[in-house]
Phosphoenolpyruvate-protein phosphotransferase
Amino acid sequence: MSDRRISGVGVTPLLGVGTVVQYDSAVDLDDDERSAVDPETERQRFEAARETAADELARERSRTAERVGAEEAEIFDAHLQFLDDPQITDGVETAVSEDGVTAERAVSRAFEDPIATFEGADGMFAERADDLRDVRDRLLRILLDRDRVDLSTLPEGTVLVAERLTPSDTAQLDPDAVAGFVTVEGGRTSHAAIMARSLAIPAVVGVDPDAVDLDDGTRLVVDGTTGDVTVDPDADAVAAARESSGATVRHDPVTTVDGRHVEVAANVGTPREAVAAAERGADGVGLFRTEFLFLDREAPPDEDEQYEALCEVCETFAGSRVVVRTLDIGGDKPIPYVDSDPGDNPFLGVRGVRFAPGERPELFEEHVRAILRAAAGPAQLAVMFPLVSTVAELDALLDEVSAIAAELDDAGIDYAVPELGAMVETPASVFLAREFAERLDFLSIGTNDLTQYVMAAARDDDRVASLHDPLHPPVLRAIARTVEAVHEGDAWVGMCGEMAGDPDFTELLVGLGLDELSMSAVTIPDVKAGVRDVDDESAATLAEAALNAETREDVRALID
């Protein structure tokens, strides 16, 4: 059959053409499994498998932080926690001691109820079942001494077709080789989908199980925008799909219909991500997450190592603005070589500037020295401070930068004091935006944390996922208040949260007055196209109506 169409949910605004490689990640237990077992031996086998799995996860976390991004790598922190979950470990102990089964059979049983619990939930909570399966299958593979399929070596032009892809599976994929993937399970917020967007791999999830009964080598067109998968397309269908897919990559700055310039920048975590962002047409970097340099290692990077990494990103965007966020570690993002108590609520604890310089001034000083040295390079480097909540905090930070600059000057070291800014992530920073703007060159709104704090809804708690939506009127009003205050303070204001990268929100954000939008590289062409289509008067009208709305449903109806 030619040109058969399969429908699912597109999770990346990209199109790929390639040939099918079927993949099954499940680990089945052998029918001839040992029956007579010694409980102590099986307990020891399980503990050894846990240790091996933890070592594997630590290595994969490090590789993912390097290849994909620091935030995406945090997925593996949850996997490490599952290894120590009492429900799992106690379940294995009971099955081994009381039922006399092997460690692998005990692991399979121990994960059954937790997986079923997640699957019975709604939305993002349900998708966490894949994380549990990932950990279960890893333990089973280790216990059964089976080799893992190496997905990093798939041939060029592969379209991976599977029932599901776990985070560990997706993190292996090489975006230069994989033309796309299609899965039966998963949604837009699944970890596989998040990684696909970060890796810029076309992906469609949630397709009918019978529809993907395809032979290896079958040619497919995967449209991650529409969610359509075309089977055995002819040459005309391939050409038409490519012509209609996504927005054109534009390397020049864009303006609205009325000529207002809006900078469209990228969020990056590594020099490699910066290169990918430049290829997608980013005007610059709106958020360089420096914490990737500090994670997954036994000691902090020295000043020169930080300087070299910063220079590598600056060289990619020579002549453009590169906004560097100072070290945002602590609380929910611990590092092994720092003895820091995350507290009962890490998101409300010691993180951002409360950690560096708050608790580790020596790390901060070396960090800022590297940034000021890099600011003398080819890019228009800017620096912003995370989680600033008071004017006193900000004044102390500015004094610290001045002191470090003076030290570099006295030592005859080449440096420059860049544009200085701060993140707007808390209600406190919203209310102080005018005072901050009078002291700084810019502010950047982090909508992920701002939504969390305005709505009192933790980002990682799926039970309150519906509250973690920036379209809630209180969040929109916080954004609008910030923009107005910053402009009154004669500074510019950007946004680097996920909201900035959703093309559906571009008109609204332009209408709210944002000067810069920064996002994952994959959505840059679509947002640039959206800016070019914006009529300033219509955008302002939309923003006013959204700010007067009472519910997020009302706001979404206005956008739709």
Observations:
- The longest helix spans residues 39-67.
- The chain has three domains: 4-25+149-244, 39-144, 263-559.
- The radius of gyration is 25 Å.
